Amino acid sequence: MSFLEGPWDAFLVHPLMAIALFFLSITRDFGLAIILLTIAIRLAVYPLYVTQIRSQRAMQELAPVMNDLKKKYPKDRQRFAEEQMKLYKERGVNPAAGCLPLVLQLPILFALYSALVQLGCGLGHSLGATCLTSLTHDEAQQILLPVLPNPIPEGGTLDTSAHWIPWLNGLHERDPFLVLPIVAGVAQLIASVMAMPAKPVQSDDPNQKMFQSMAYTFPLMTVFLGASFPAGLTLYWIATTMFQIVQQYFVSGWGQLPKFVPFLRGIPTPADKRMKRETRDALQEERADMAKIDERAGVAAPSGNGNGNGGANGQGRRRGRRRGRR
């Protein structure tokens, strides 16, 4: 079957296979090729990652203001939603921006899963079918650009082993000893704890509570899924999580990791000075946000004497105060 017959294979799966084969021609080790593929993918989505971090940080900074809004409008959900959207617009916050990297990673994971299966069992191999032989030289030629070298010798098949992981015959197989899934789970736990703010803000926001619970449940899910997927996919997840840890070290610091590893408190990160400055700016913006909300609430509130003239007089007094401020 030609790879052009399926758009999914043509535009995502086979390009990933071709990139992996290109890196294999450089490293001569399939495990190192997957790590280089991971780095290439992470660099490609790095702008989205920065957007995600900024969005998460902005949402955390707005948590105290959201708490005050809920206290101000405990029974008026419509007014709370209006003020919330105004606040998001004024601060340039998009709550959905934090989901972009995760949404983008899902198709990449599924495509890489299919790519590993086809690399280990032949072009066009369907999931669940019996694996007879790995990708051949001629099959590799179908997906490689003419300018790219073919790492598979003529008449031979692809070697999917990583020489530094001796207990695996090939990375298209599952890890029988669960070493890679456990390493992936530990790395995911470290990344999740680092993503949590060093000084968490008390909030009853359900989204924040869900994020905190996922920080501890997602590593367990990683171990479970890693035991079910090909070892190469688990290796990709380890590499991408380690890349994320390094990014977080430079962008947002240790997070809550020093709470579990105390000696890290004495090790500064490149993000510390910037985080202090942003925290100070966030406090000033929080005061300004609450002042705007109070001003809007004061303008919109009806007069206390209950008649139209009183309301008009109240509005006149407020206009006078604003002119005085000008």
Describe the structure.
With 326 residues, the chain is mainly alpha-helical. It has one domain. The protein has eleven helices and no strands. Helix 1 (7-27) crosses helix 2 (30-44), helix 3 packs across helix 10 and helix 7 (179-195) packs parallel to helix 9 (231-251). The longest helix is centred in the C-terminal third of the chain and has 29 residues, at 272-300. The N and C termini lie far apart (75 Å). The relative contact order is 0.12. Mean pLDDT is 81; it is low at 1-5 and 303-326.
**Oligomeric grouping of the chains:** single chain
Largest sheet: none
Provide the structure class.
mainly alpha
| Distance between the first and last residues' Cα | 75 Å
- Tally of structural domains: 1
CA radius of gyration: 27 Å
Task: Give the helix proportion (percent range).
Answer: 55-70%
- Ranges where pLDDT stays below 50 over 5 or more residues in a row are 1-5, 303-326
Output the number of helix runs.
Answer: 11
Give the rounded overall mean pLDDT. 81
Shape: elongated
Find the count of extended strands (DSSP E, 2+ residues). 0
Percent of residues in β-strands: under 5%
**H/E element sequence:** HHHHHHHHHHH
SSE topology:
Elements: H1 7-27, H2 30-44, H3 46-72, H4 77-91, H5 100-121, H6 137-143, H7 179-195, H8 206-228, H9 231-251, H10 272-300, H11 308-325
Helix pairs in contact: 1-2, 1-5, 2-9, 3-4, 3-10, 7-8, 7-9
Summarize the structure.
By secondary structure, the chain is mostly helical. The protein has helices at residues 7-27, 30-44, 46-72, 77-91, 100-121, 137-143, 179-195, 206-228, 231-251, 272-300, 308-325.
